[in-house]
Amino acid sequence: MSLGPGMSADLASLTVDADPTEPTAPAKDSDRQHGRSPSQIAWDRLKGDKIAITSLGIVVFFVLVAVFAPLLVKLEGEKLNVYHSDLISAMDTYPIIGANTAHWFGVEPRTGRDLFAVWAYGARPSLIIGFAAATLSTIVGITLGLLAGYLGGKVDKVIGWTIDLLLSLPLLVVVLAVVPVIQQRFTPAGETLTAEQKSGIRFYVLIAILVFFGWIGLARLIRGEVFSLREREFVQAAKVIGVKTRHILFKEILPNLVGPIIVSASIAVPAYITYEATLSYLGAGLVEPTPSWGRTVSNAQNAYARYPLFLWPPVLSIASLVLALTLLGEAIRDAFDPNTRR
Amino acid sequence: MRATIVRAVGVAASIGLIAACAAPSNNAGTSGNTKTTGSGGTIAAPLDPTAKGPAPEVAGAKKGGILTVSYATAPSDMDPSAQFYQDSGIIMTRLTQRSLTSFVTRDGNQVLVPDLATDLGRVSGDGLTWTFTLKDGIKYSDGSPVTAGDIAYAVKRSFAFTDTGPTYQVDFLKGAKDAKGDQVYKGPWESGENFAGVDAPDAKTVVFHLEKRWETLPYFAAFSQTSPIPKAKETKNRDYGNNAVGTGPYKIKSFTQGSELVLEKNTFWDPATDPSRHQYLDGYVFKFGQDSIKVQQGILASNGPDATTLSWDSVDASLIDQVTGAKASQFVTGPSSCVIAVNMDTRKIPLAVRKAVAIAFPFDDINKAAGATPLSQTPASTLVPPQIPGHLDFKIEGMTGTGNGDPVKAKAMLAAAGYGPGKEFQLVWYYTDDDPSNVAQQVNQVRKTKLMAAGFKVKDIGVAGKDRRTLIAKIDGPHNMLQSPAGWCFDWPSADSIFPPTVSSTQIKAGGSNWGDLADPKVDSEMARIQALPIAEQGPEWGKFDKWLLETYVPVLPWYNDKSNFLFGTKVHNVINDANHGMPVLDAIWVDQ
Prior knowledge:
The structure holds two protein chains of two kinds. Chain A contains twelve helices and no strands. Chain A is mainly alpha-helical. Chain A is globular and about 80 Å long. In chain B, helix 13 (about 440-455) links the parallel strand 15 and strand 16. Helices cover about 25% and strands about 20% of the residues of chain B. Chain B is built from 18 helices and 22 strands. Chain B is globular, with a radius of gyration of 24 Å. Chain B is of the alpha+beta class. Chain B has a domain at about 335-565: Roll (Dipeptide-binding Protein, domain 3), CATH 3.10.105. The interface of A and B includes residues 111, 180 and 282 of A.
């Protein structure tokens, strides 16, 4: 087996040595590991991990907020993007009210929008972009990684070069430059976009860009794994008895890679959520009037001294969601990692 | 002054000259215990042709020290021929360059006095020849003598910069335009020095030859376009400004574009010849591209160098409590020279619909969304600002710059004009969609939401801020409102520096937009009639013209008069607002050491 370009040794620590036909870890009956799949073992371990369960609870909370945002806002008695200018002081353009029963998080300085509505709806782009981009980039990464690793030769070289090329591009700079260009591409000639159309396009462009750059890491990881797996006896045996390539890839090799894939995906989600917030903060993400936590943070930072309530909800939400997802990813990694078996 | 408020930053600049206020119209009433200088009443700039140097001392002024001026924008160059902006303009006219005439501040009022010239110019009987005589002993900052030829050369040189600089000289000086009205004289490099509009018969005399009467020429003579430029030392481009030799009390030590300008004393400046300027400080440092909120917070704390720093950016809303309360002594506000307005295209929007827009326009909500406060602006109901002689105080319904619009009445007006559900009238405008503070985007949303509630269909086209200025100036674009200019800053305290540049048909002929995109012979002929009157009689006529124009055409909704905001450290003294320019009288400032 050869190490692919850029293949580093630390990735090997994610390797799952166990496969259904060949248990390698010292089997202990008390661990109830014998004859069980790596995923089952990992799930059992996760269930006993308090940090993992707490993190999962936080993630589920934000998912629920995002899903039921219209309902929650209705419960508050508000609507998204209604401008309560009457609650703004003409003297200094700050709200004349704080948090109250009508506006749970108060209203936005200058415009008078309900901040709870902005916050609840703001969870949606973060989560949708985070999970959608992670799912898509995982699928692309798995496919290309499997192909490169198993087929080798020219296919491997082309994919390898592509990976190296994409790795050499500074992601943030490219995104800042490319978003307006792609947006222009989607604008019909001679036509102009309204704010809502623009925000819609930006939404899909963000997902596309994150997927475009996001598959690299996983593809390299999978490729390296496949390099070693394809030489293993059970794969060789399948080949000898004439099993189709597709079957070998998806039925024989892929199940052994579930661990690293889940780990990679669970780390990708918080990373993408951070990216969405960062890009919206920098003005390359979603635009008004679509709510986004990143943009709320950007709007709120200068008002912090006078009106801290504006800044705290999105900041705490991004921080706790990303932390929870990261800890959950860590826990999943630990659960799948044979080297940490207790 | 075109729509060139380069100084205005923070809220106002980022939304491209939109913002406003929901406050009582009285300056004194809204500024609480804050000092208001430059007065809110009419401040004609009276003329004093006999003023002699040196300028009267400021009581208690100390010598020495350096003043730092930190602000958000940056001048693109320091060329005296090209300048037409508030920031570089005030730096040149107060500190580095002298011109034929200049302004002095007396009891908060601006008075026009002779500067390099011995008087305010002598006009011939037919009004078509103006003669200025230079004072003796004027020297450049390198010690060489100033001659009348250098001033004539500088005036000719200004014709090469009419793309960004003023164009009054093109309009009035003889031989500048052909019969069709196109500029044919393009400065000494392109068109040679043979120009009939200005000459210097001897070393002490400058003569202007005019195409038509120009009663306000002495005001134009205060522009840095009449500051002498030695032909031998200039570079034939804007870079001349980086090392320009000047005649003012200070000279350029270093200029780094976009970053910093450092001035030091000019030892060849003779106070005995200058009735207008002082030389109290050892130097000035201008810092460009600064984060104004951080600068202003630092100034309020006044630690170390912040105690001798001044900011002329609009005070951030979060600091208003401080500058109107405990720190009121560090803040000066007053009227500025600009009026901001909501522009509509009279060719594309019928009069009845324009009136409905006026009734529906949510000034107060937009003001709040823009972060505008009573400190940054006062509502306007006229196009002639109150400090201009002849200002007529009238209020037309929907055109007062206040209130939140009446959607019900607007809907009824639209219905009467034949528009309604299924057949809405569509308003189309550009807005800035890359404002990092999101203010422009939010202002747009508020404006859109409220106008849609009044029964309009709205198409808002988001573009980058840097492109917007060009797009809104195009006369054939898809937009039918909010075209340029979004505001106007008068160049001298007479309405003939407001109306002819903003509503005459010449802009439309040149392919640029104006207020209402008007190209109406009646408007043109009325303006020509008023301009031919003696200066003292023009004022009231312009006031009447203002009302007639707004009532008859509804080309534009007056919105607000910009206010200047100066915030300065505890060691900075004698900060006075120059209401003609909306800037501080820089040379009158002195500091503790």
